Amino acid sequence: MSVWPGSHVLLHAAMAFIMMLSEASMLDWSAVFLVDKAGMIDKNAGIGYTVFSIAITTSRLGGNSIIPKARTQEDHIGGRALGGGWVLPLDVAG
Fold this sequence. Notes:
Elements: H1 7-36, H2 42-66, H3 73-84, H4 87-93
Helix pairs in contact: 1-2
């Protein structure tokens, strides 16, 4: 017997899917952006790609130690705002 997941599970799944797609597109296009729009030379665009990869890895590993400490609903809402809140200012500025 299977049970259809609740609305909270579906919402979190949709958020995770959207974040995965945005991360993948940033990863795929970061070097192209750095060369075409930011004016970096080709050799240095690889450094930008490396810095982005290190930032993603650090945030994932660091997040694993923070999650057990977040016990209240406010902690989880704050984490969501911190994790996704940077997208809007970058979108407006760009």
